[in-house]
Amino acid sequence: MDRCPAALPTDHTPCAGPAAVTVLDADNAGADGCEHHAARLLAALDRGHVFALPDAPAGAAHRVFKAATPQDVRLHRLADALVPLPATPS
To answer: Of the candidates 53, 52, 23, 27, which has an alpha carbon nearest to the alpha carbon of residue 38?
Structure first.
């Protein structure tokens, strides 16, 4: 099963439902995602925003915002979050 565009390459967890929100970075680049992955992406962004998609369940953007806890690494652009990290040698 495909994962939503908001799922970070390092996050191997499954989606928690259909895409419900759009996460935007400070430059307004965005990715639609399920509430689970959108919260993780929003937490990784510096000055990110979240907006509910038109057919989202009531309160989806609010739940994502509340679930997004800051991470150790803060990214300024969505592109920085979605570029896969190079593989480390075993």
So the answer is: 23
